[in-house]
Amino acid sequence: MAALTSKPDIAPAAGKVGVLLPGMGAVGTTFISGVIAIRRGLAKPIGSLTQMGTIRLGKRTDGNVQLIKDYLPLAGLDDLVFGGWDVFSDNAYVAAKRAGVLEEKLLEQMREELEAIKPMPAVFEQEYVRNLHGDNIKPDASKWEWAQSLIADIENFKATNGCDRLVAVWCGSTEIYKQPTAVHQSLAAFEQGLKDSDPDIAPSQIYAYALLSLGVPMANGAPNLTVDFPAMMELARKNKVAVTGKDFKTGQTLMKTILAPGLKARMLGVAGWYSTNILGNRDGEVLDDPDSFKSKEVSKLGVLDTIFEPERNPDLYGDMHHVVRINYYPPRGDNKEGWDNIDIFGWLGYPMQIKIDFLCRDSILAAPIVLDLALLMDLSQRAGMSGVQEWLSFYWKSPQPVQDDVYPEHDLFIQLTKLKNTMRYLMGDEPITHLGNEYYD
User: Which of 291, 302, 343, 379 is closest to 68 using CA atoms?
Assistant: First the structure.
């Protein structure tokens, strides 16, 4: 994202916004069902910063605290239209029932509206998600032809639903771990790779190409190599499109980005941090494949090193052992459980321990993130803030930095400060730096 200098001109949030979801499983249908329930007054948008969060302006003594949704010119929930792709042909009602996240009593009240939302056939390669087997996939073709088919899907969706703008949030599965290759180094190489059906081009990258080609901002909710490589950054710059990612920060990693900054702030050492998860939803099944787990592991492992900065604090974190495990356990369904054992040490090196058992609901934590990202990415695009939206790092396990030689910020509280100060910048208000007299901090 370009350096912030003066308040940008923000186009009005007029008309309908199409929210496109590559992946309409547990997370996608929980998000869609939740927004519909909130629109009907059946529930509250708990967990959504844009809907329930507040922002302070000026000094504490001014008492000027506003709801973010009233402060920012965000699209309204009534203006959102939902669509997407999935390897299973189930409509949103059937998919939500199958996911087992929301109670049937709630889903029944929205059944007709959910049944009308049907996924388009997906671009899919078995090699990239080995444990997923669906039949709602596009016919065999070159990757270039798949990209053109997605472009047609996007244009048809926009026209059919009368949308003024579109935004996309990847809610699909974790692909196998891949490093960028020659085909990812320039837009020309990538487009030739699509025509040659280069095996190093993943399905998620084909979605990204189609969306960015049409100027649709995209948020990447999985640890996939989707937009974070030179060719896609070149396309984003060329078409002035906003991108952000990657990997929704929901359960265990959310806890790490809350606890680790506190330990570091008090200069308490960490000898080891052992994390394991059990979950039984589609995500758990996909991650049962070691190569898909590798993508998630890399995303999760990077958090603590960036927060603790062991090279700058060798006595406290220089010999820390960080282990992450994920275990597929079907009886648990979407109710993920994360166990953490943290071996810490304090004054004179005396050891202590922290134990965490977080029984969370994966999609319940992810759905409000999807909403916030859809609304804030639409805002970014209307404000002309193209490229990597680093101010949205708050939502990611593995935030994408604005350039390769800048490390990402993982501390949740620094991320929140940056997020809110960018909101203030967008509206022409002064950032809050916690400097100055005692009434200003």
Answer: 379
The residue assigned the tokens 């994920």 is: 326
Cα gap 254→303, rounded to integer Å: 10
Residue recorded with tokens 């042909």: 89
Q: Return the amino acid letter for 248.
A: F
pTM over 0.90: yes
pLDDT in tens, 205-229: 999 999 999 999 999 999 999 999 9
d(CA 397, CA 76): 27
Provide DSSP, 293-321.
HHHHHHHHHHHHHHHH-TTT-HHHHTT-E
Using CB atoms within 10 A of its CB, is residue 4 exposed (0-12), middle (13-18) or buried (19+)? Answer: middle
Please identify which residue in the block is written with the tokens 């990209």.
147
Burial of 355 (0-12, 13-18, 19+ CB in 10 A): exposed
What contacts 24+ positions apart, CB below 8 Å, involve 97-100? Answer: 99/25, 99/26, 99/29, 99/30, 99/281, 99/282, 99/334, 99/363, 100/333, 100/334
Lowest mean pLDDT among 17-31, 172-186, 427-441: 427-441
